[in-house]
Design goal:
- It is a single chain.
- The protein is 72% helix and 0% strand.
- It is an all-alpha fold.
- The protein has one domain.
- The longest helix is centred in the middle third of the chain and has 22 residues.
Length: 60
Amino acid sequence: MLTKETVIEHIKSLPDNFSLDELMEKLLFLYKLEIALEQSKNKQTTTHEVVKEEYKKWLQ
């Protein structure tokens, strides 16, 4: 989960003038990155080999 401090830190890294779209894009990226890191910590990942095999099935 994102913390207020993390969000503030990243907002401060934006230029003085930015669009709402830029802000939302950055916040969404941070949120998705946090989810991915948590999934990785919890071993909720798929190996590259498994993905390649699944991809082959999709192309048939």
